[in-house]
Write a structure and sequence with these properties.
The protein contains 13 helices and no strands. It has helices spanning 13-33, 36-63, 74-91, 98-105, 108-111, 118-136, 139-148, 159-183, 185-188, 192-206, 217-226, 234-241, 246-280. This is ABC transporter permease.
Length: 283
Amino acid sequence: MDASVLTISPGRPLRASITTFGALVWSGFRRYATYRQATIAGSFTNIVFGFLRCYVLLAVAAGAVGGRPGGYHPAQLATFVWVGQGLLSVVGIWGWTDLADRIRSGDVASDLLRPVPPVTAYLAADLGRAAHAMLTRFLPPTIVGAIFFTLAAPHRWQTIPLFAVSVFLAVVGSYGCRFLVNATAYWLQDARGPLVLWTLGSGVLAGLYFPLRLLPEWLAVTLWVATPFPGLLQTPLDVLVERDPPGMQLGLVLLQAGWGLALLTIAQTVQRRAERKLVVQGG
């Protein structure tokens, strides 16, 4: 049986690059499609925690003055929780240690021999993972939330397209952060410490446990401008529930795009420095 091998043609570099990137995305999708039992178990866990979080936030809304804590009415809070539970696996802020494991084992050396740079290759695979999660992990919590609670439906035509773009940028931003945390293994040899810190801090700072709008305004604005964390979950959820006027919605998505580009640029710079370090050490 003949085997087809992806090659980059000098005469058609753009087409070859797109084809190769698409193949890597598809390989990432197929990899996660094999874990059917884990997918079902993960969806069930997200639904259970969705009920807990939703009832807590609705209780907060019931006890708040005016019934709108942080500017959210109850239906917006319910939507924030259930869509957030679905996006948690799509954005994938936890659990990715592929790069750190390969650095520790030395297998990363083979990554450097491939025609696709590691930052690009891992990004493509992560987009495939996110696409699989969107189909299998996003819908169940959202459907369950819609059955048992009153969710807020978007009223502006631009909300759904902006939400889709925002989710894509959240995946890119999350990947950039996770790549940088994993890349600490180039210097530390073992990235478990930074990974633990990332796990503990990212959920809180991204708005997973509670909307960041419940914090003092100066602190919430500082987190949005000075860190990429709100763009991982808080921004797409605020866009979907229409927490802000249209101009602010667009501004938040543009801020996400800026952070995503910055994180990918930093990741590429760190990777180049790490490669020089490997060469100096004879790796």
